[in-house]
Amino acid sequence: MIDTKYQQILQNISLSLFLAFWRYLFCYEYVHVTIEDMVSFQAPMPFASRVLLPGVGRLIEIATGIDPQVVFLLTDFLSSFALFALFSQILSRYSFSSRASLVARCVIGVYIALLYAGLSTLRIYYPWDVPSATFVLLSILLVQQGRYLLFMILLPVAILNRETAALLPLIYFGIATVPLLKRTLVTGLLLLVSLLIEYFVQTQVAPRGTGEVVSLLDYSNRLSANAQFMVEQPLLFALVALPVPLYWIFVGLWRSNDGLKGLVYVSLGLYLMAFVFGNAYEPRVFVEAVVASAVPIACWYRDLRGCTA
Q1: Cα 17 from Cα 132, distance rounded (Å)
Q2: What's the domain range around 15?
Q3: How far apart are CA 187 and CA 172, in angstroms?
Q4: Cβ neighbours of residue 19 under 8 Å, at least 6 residues apart?
Q5: Does residue 80 belong to any structural domain of this protein?
Q6: Cα torsion at 280, 284, 289, 293 (round to 10°)?
Q7: Within a domain: residue 44?
Q8: 232-276: per-residue pLDDT in tens?
Protein backbone atom coordinates (compact mmCIF):
# COMPACT_ATOMS: atom_id res chain seq x y z
CA MET A 1 0.00 0.00 0.00
CA ILE A 2 1.47 3.36 -1.03
CA ASP A 3 1.82 5.86 1.81
CA THR A 4 -0.71 8.73 1.65
CA LYS A 5 2.11 11.28 1.35
CA TYR A 6 3.51 9.57 -1.74
CA GLN A 7 0.02 9.15 -3.13
CA GLN A 8 -0.46 12.91 -2.95
CA ILE A 9 2.90 13.50 -4.64
CA LEU A 10 1.95 11.18 -7.52
CA GLN A 11 -1.45 12.82 -7.78
CA ASN A 12 0.11 16.28 -7.91
CA ILE A 13 2.61 15.15 -10.56
CA SER A 14 -0.26 13.80 -12.69
CA LEU A 15 -2.31 16.98 -12.31
CA SER A 16 0.74 19.12 -13.08
CA LEU A 17 1.54 17.16 -16.24
CA PHE A 18 -2.07 17.55 -17.33
CA LEU A 19 -2.13 21.32 -16.80
CA ALA A 20 1.31 21.95 -18.31
CA PHE A 21 0.65 19.93 -21.47
CA TRP A 22 -2.89 21.29 -21.79
CA ARG A 23 -1.46 24.79 -21.99
CA TYR A 24 1.31 23.62 -24.31
CA LEU A 25 -1.12 21.93 -26.71
CA PHE A 26 -4.00 24.40 -26.76
CA CYS A 27 -2.49 27.83 -26.08
CA TYR A 28 -0.65 29.86 -28.68
CA GLU A 29 1.86 32.67 -28.75
CA TYR A 30 0.57 36.23 -28.85
CA VAL A 31 1.62 37.55 -32.25
CA HIS A 32 2.77 40.86 -30.74
CA VAL A 33 4.60 39.26 -27.80
CA THR A 34 6.30 36.03 -28.86
CA ILE A 35 8.51 33.86 -26.66
CA GLU A 36 11.51 35.14 -28.60
CA ASP A 37 10.44 38.73 -27.80
CA MET A 38 10.22 37.83 -24.10
CA VAL A 39 13.61 36.15 -23.71
CA SER A 40 15.38 38.74 -25.87
CA PHE A 41 13.72 41.50 -23.78
CA GLN A 42 12.14 43.11 -26.82
CA ALA A 43 8.51 42.86 -25.67
CA PRO A 44 6.52 46.09 -25.24
CA MET A 45 5.34 47.33 -21.87
CA PRO A 46 3.84 46.09 -19.62
CA PHE A 47 5.12 42.68 -20.77
CA ALA A 48 8.72 43.90 -20.59
CA SER A 49 8.36 44.45 -16.83
CA ARG A 50 7.60 40.75 -16.27
CA VAL A 51 11.27 39.82 -16.22
CA LEU A 52 11.37 36.82 -13.86
CA LEU A 53 10.48 33.93 -16.18
CA PRO A 54 11.96 35.44 -19.37
CA GLY A 55 15.17 36.05 -17.41
CA VAL A 56 15.26 32.42 -16.26
CA GLY A 57 14.57 31.25 -19.82
CA ARG A 58 17.32 33.47 -21.20
CA LEU A 59 19.93 32.35 -18.66
CA ILE A 60 19.18 28.66 -19.24
CA GLU A 61 19.29 29.17 -23.00
CA ILE A 62 22.72 30.85 -22.74
CA ALA A 63 24.08 28.23 -20.32
CA THR A 64 22.72 25.07 -21.96
CA GLY A 65 21.33 25.97 -25.37
CA ILE A 66 17.91 24.59 -24.40
CA ASP A 67 15.06 26.22 -26.31
CA PRO A 68 13.14 28.68 -24.07
CA GLN A 69 9.86 27.03 -25.07
CA VAL A 70 11.11 23.80 -23.47
CA VAL A 71 12.24 25.77 -20.40
CA PHE A 72 8.80 27.35 -20.08
CA LEU A 73 7.13 23.94 -20.39
CA LEU A 74 9.29 22.78 -17.49
CA THR A 75 8.57 25.90 -15.40
CA ASP A 76 4.87 25.43 -16.14
CA PHE A 77 5.10 21.88 -14.79
CA LEU A 78 7.10 22.89 -11.71
CA SER A 79 4.86 25.84 -10.85
CA SER A 80 1.77 23.66 -11.42
CA PHE A 81 3.21 21.04 -9.07
CA ALA A 82 3.86 23.73 -6.46
CA LEU A 83 0.30 25.02 -6.96
CA PHE A 84 -1.32 21.63 -6.30
CA ALA A 85 1.09 20.83 -3.44
CA LEU A 86 0.24 24.14 -1.75
CA PHE A 87 -3.46 23.49 -2.28
CA SER A 88 -3.04 20.06 -0.63
CA GLN A 89 -1.24 21.60 2.33
CA ILE A 90 -3.83 24.33 2.83
CA LEU A 91 -6.74 21.86 2.59
CA SER A 92 -5.06 19.63 5.18
CA ARG A 93 -5.25 22.57 7.60
CA TYR A 94 -9.05 22.30 7.31
CA SER A 95 -9.23 18.55 8.01
CA PHE A 96 -9.83 17.36 4.45
CA SER A 97 -9.36 13.65 3.92
CA SER A 98 -6.99 12.52 1.17
CA ARG A 99 -9.96 11.61 -1.04
CA ALA A 100 -11.74 14.94 -0.52
CA SER A 101 -8.48 16.77 -1.17
CA LEU A 102 -7.96 14.86 -4.43
CA VAL A 103 -11.47 15.71 -5.63
CA ALA A 104 -10.94 19.40 -4.82
CA ARG A 105 -7.57 19.44 -6.61
CA CYS A 106 -9.01 17.72 -9.67
CA VAL A 107 -11.90 20.19 -9.86
CA ILE A 108 -9.65 23.24 -9.53
CA GLY A 109 -7.17 21.75 -12.03
CA VAL A 110 -9.83 21.20 -14.69
CA TYR A 111 -11.42 24.60 -14.13
CA ILE A 112 -8.08 26.39 -14.36
CA ALA A 113 -7.28 24.47 -17.55
CA LEU A 114 -10.59 25.62 -19.05
CA LEU A 115 -9.86 29.22 -18.08
CA TYR A 116 -6.49 29.03 -19.80
CA ALA A 117 -7.77 27.23 -22.90
CA GLY A 118 -11.33 26.05 -23.35
CA LEU A 119 -13.87 28.71 -22.49
CA SER A 120 -12.62 31.14 -25.12
CA THR A 121 -10.90 31.19 -28.48
CA LEU A 122 -8.37 33.61 -26.95
CA ARG A 123 -5.91 31.03 -25.66
CA ILE A 124 -2.78 33.15 -25.39
CA TYR A 125 0.26 31.57 -23.74
CA TYR A 126 2.26 33.54 -21.19
CA PRO A 127 4.91 31.79 -19.05
CA TRP A 128 4.10 33.90 -15.97
CA ASP A 129 0.43 32.85 -15.70
CA VAL A 130 0.73 29.66 -13.62
CA PRO A 131 3.50 31.06 -11.37
CA SER A 132 1.21 34.05 -10.65
CA ALA A 133 -1.47 31.69 -9.33
CA THR A 134 1.15 29.76 -7.35
CA PHE A 135 2.37 32.97 -5.69
CA VAL A 136 -1.22 33.65 -4.57
CA LEU A 137 -1.54 30.27 -2.83
CA LEU A 138 1.95 30.53 -1.34
CA SER A 139 1.08 33.96 0.04
CA ILE A 140 -2.11 32.57 1.60
CA LEU A 141 -0.20 29.71 3.27
CA LEU A 142 2.59 31.96 4.59
CA VAL A 143 0.12 34.45 6.08
CA GLN A 144 -1.99 31.66 7.59
CA GLN A 145 1.15 30.26 9.23
CA GLY A 146 2.10 33.69 10.56
CA ARG A 147 5.33 33.76 8.53
CA TYR A 148 4.91 37.41 7.66
CA LEU A 149 8.59 38.13 7.00
CA LEU A 150 8.77 35.40 4.36
CA PHE A 151 5.59 36.78 2.82
CA MET A 152 7.18 40.23 2.57
CA ILE A 153 10.34 38.75 1.01
CA LEU A 154 8.19 36.89 -1.51
CA LEU A 155 6.38 40.05 -2.58
CA PRO A 156 9.06 41.68 -4.80
CA VAL A 157 9.84 38.32 -6.43
CA ALA A 158 6.17 37.87 -7.30
CA ILE A 159 6.01 41.42 -8.69
CA LEU A 160 8.97 40.67 -10.98
CA ASN A 161 6.86 37.81 -12.31
CA ARG A 162 3.73 39.89 -12.94
CA GLU A 163 2.55 43.31 -11.79
CA THR A 164 -0.77 41.97 -10.44
CA ALA A 165 1.23 40.67 -7.46
CA ALA A 166 1.10 44.23 -6.14
CA LEU A 167 -2.35 43.21 -4.84
CA LEU A 168 -0.97 40.38 -2.69
CA PRO A 169 -0.94 42.60 0.44
CA LEU A 170 -4.74 42.27 0.37
CA ILE A 171 -4.22 38.67 1.47
CA TYR A 172 -2.36 39.93 4.53
CA PHE A 173 -5.20 42.32 5.32
CA GLY A 174 -7.82 39.60 4.87
CA ILE A 175 -6.40 36.78 6.95
CA ALA A 176 -3.48 37.94 9.12
CA THR A 177 -4.16 37.35 12.83
CA VAL A 178 -3.04 40.77 14.07
CA PRO A 179 -5.08 43.73 15.41
CA LEU A 180 -7.11 45.58 12.79
CA LEU A 181 -5.22 48.88 13.13
CA LYS A 182 -1.83 47.23 12.71
CA ARG A 183 -3.15 45.09 9.87
CA THR A 184 -4.49 48.16 8.07
CA LEU A 185 -1.27 50.15 8.48
CA VAL A 186 0.96 47.27 7.38
CA THR A 187 -1.28 46.54 4.40
CA GLY A 188 -1.22 50.16 3.32
CA LEU A 189 2.57 50.25 3.64
CA LEU A 190 2.95 47.00 1.69
CA LEU A 191 0.67 48.27 -1.07
CA LEU A 192 2.73 51.46 -1.31
CA VAL A 193 5.99 49.50 -1.41
CA SER A 194 4.53 47.15 -4.03
CA LEU A 195 3.56 50.04 -6.27
CA LEU A 196 7.00 51.62 -5.84
CA ILE A 197 8.68 48.33 -6.72
CA GLU A 198 6.55 47.99 -9.84
CA TYR A 199 7.27 51.61 -10.81
CA PHE A 200 11.01 50.99 -10.36
CA VAL A 201 10.83 47.78 -12.39
CA GLN A 202 8.97 49.48 -15.24
CA THR A 203 11.19 52.54 -15.36
CA GLN A 204 14.63 51.20 -14.42
CA VAL A 205 14.81 47.41 -14.65
CA ALA A 206 12.59 46.45 -17.57
CA PRO A 207 14.42 46.66 -20.90
CA ARG A 208 12.88 48.91 -23.49
CA GLY A 209 10.99 46.82 -26.01
CA THR A 210 10.59 47.76 -29.63
CA GLY A 211 6.84 47.21 -29.74
CA GLU A 212 3.98 49.55 -28.99
CA VAL A 213 3.78 50.54 -25.34
CA VAL A 214 0.61 49.46 -23.53
CA SER A 215 -0.17 51.90 -20.74
CA LEU A 216 -1.33 50.35 -17.48
CA LEU A 217 -3.10 53.58 -16.59
CA ASP A 218 -5.23 53.84 -19.75
CA TYR A 219 -8.29 51.71 -19.05
CA SER A 220 -10.73 53.41 -21.44
CA ASN A 221 -10.12 51.00 -24.32
CA ARG A 222 -10.08 48.03 -21.96
CA LEU A 223 -13.41 48.92 -20.37
CA SER A 224 -14.91 49.47 -23.81
CA ALA A 225 -13.64 46.06 -24.94
CA ASN A 226 -15.04 44.41 -21.80
CA ALA A 227 -18.43 46.04 -22.42
CA GLN A 228 -18.38 44.83 -26.03
CA PHE A 229 -17.50 41.35 -24.77
CA MET A 230 -20.56 41.37 -22.48
CA VAL A 231 -22.84 42.22 -25.41
CA GLU A 232 -21.33 40.01 -28.11
CA GLN A 233 -20.57 36.90 -26.02
CA PRO A 234 -23.28 36.74 -23.33
CA LEU A 235 -22.83 33.02 -22.64
CA LEU A 236 -19.10 33.31 -22.03
CA PHE A 237 -19.71 36.49 -20.04
CA ALA A 238 -22.15 34.56 -17.82
CA LEU A 239 -19.60 31.78 -17.25
CA VAL A 240 -16.97 34.34 -16.29
CA ALA A 241 -19.08 36.89 -14.39
CA LEU A 242 -21.74 34.80 -12.64
CA PRO A 243 -19.29 33.20 -10.19
CA VAL A 244 -18.85 36.64 -8.59
CA PRO A 245 -22.43 37.19 -7.32
CA LEU A 246 -22.99 33.46 -6.77
CA TYR A 247 -19.77 33.24 -4.81
CA TRP A 248 -20.85 36.17 -2.66
CA ILE A 249 -24.36 34.82 -2.06
CA PHE A 250 -23.51 31.19 -1.31
CA VAL A 251 -20.03 31.43 0.18
CA GLY A 252 -19.69 35.02 1.31
CA LEU A 253 -22.74 34.71 3.56
CA TRP A 254 -21.67 31.30 4.81
CA ARG A 255 -20.80 31.21 8.50
CA SER A 256 -17.15 30.32 8.82
CA ASN A 257 -14.08 31.18 10.84
CA ASP A 258 -12.42 34.55 10.40
CA GLY A 259 -9.61 33.17 8.24
CA LEU A 260 -11.99 31.77 5.65
CA LYS A 261 -14.16 34.87 5.80
CA GLY A 262 -11.08 36.92 5.02
CA LEU A 263 -10.27 34.71 2.04
CA VAL A 264 -13.82 35.17 0.78
CA TYR A 265 -13.41 38.95 0.75
CA VAL A 266 -9.89 38.79 -0.72
CA SER A 267 -10.88 36.52 -3.59
CA LEU A 268 -14.01 38.56 -4.31
CA GLY A 269 -11.83 41.66 -4.51
CA LEU A 270 -9.44 39.89 -6.90
CA TYR A 271 -12.41 38.83 -9.05
CA LEU A 272 -13.71 42.38 -9.32
CA MET A 273 -10.25 43.87 -9.95
CA ALA A 274 -9.63 41.35 -12.73
CA PHE A 275 -12.97 42.14 -14.32
CA VAL A 276 -12.58 45.92 -14.15
CA PHE A 277 -8.88 46.27 -14.95
CA GLY A 278 -8.15 43.07 -16.89
CA ASN A 279 -9.22 41.82 -20.27
CA ALA A 280 -12.41 40.07 -19.13
CA TYR A 281 -12.74 38.42 -22.55
CA GLU A 282 -9.60 36.44 -21.68
CA PRO A 283 -10.78 34.09 -18.89
CA ARG A 284 -7.18 33.39 -17.85
CA VAL A 285 -7.10 36.76 -16.01
CA PHE A 286 -9.43 35.29 -13.37
CA VAL A 287 -7.17 32.37 -12.41
CA GLU A 288 -5.54 34.19 -9.48
CA ALA A 289 -8.97 34.99 -8.05
CA VAL A 290 -10.10 31.41 -8.63
CA VAL A 291 -7.23 29.85 -6.68
CA ALA A 292 -7.81 32.31 -3.81
CA SER A 293 -11.48 31.33 -3.70
CA ALA A 294 -10.86 27.58 -4.07
CA VAL A 295 -10.26 26.87 -0.38
CA PRO A 296 -13.38 28.57 1.06
CA ILE A 297 -15.50 27.13 -1.75
CA ALA A 298 -14.19 23.63 -1.04
CA CYS A 299 -14.87 24.05 2.70
CA TRP A 300 -18.34 25.46 2.01
CA TYR A 301 -19.21 22.48 -0.22
CA ARG A 302 -17.84 20.04 2.36
CA ASP A 303 -19.97 21.61 5.09
CA LEU A 304 -22.99 21.74 2.79
CA ARG A 305 -22.80 17.97 2.47
CA GLY A 306 -22.66 17.70 6.25
CA CYS A 307 -19.30 15.98 6.44
CA THR A 308 -15.99 16.95 7.99
CA ALA A 309 -13.63 15.31 5.54
Answers
A1: 18
A2: 1-127
A3: 7
A4: 76, 80, 109, 112, 113, 116, 130
A5: yes
A6: 120
A7: yes
A8: 777 777 776 666 666 666 665 665 565 677 888 888 888 877 777
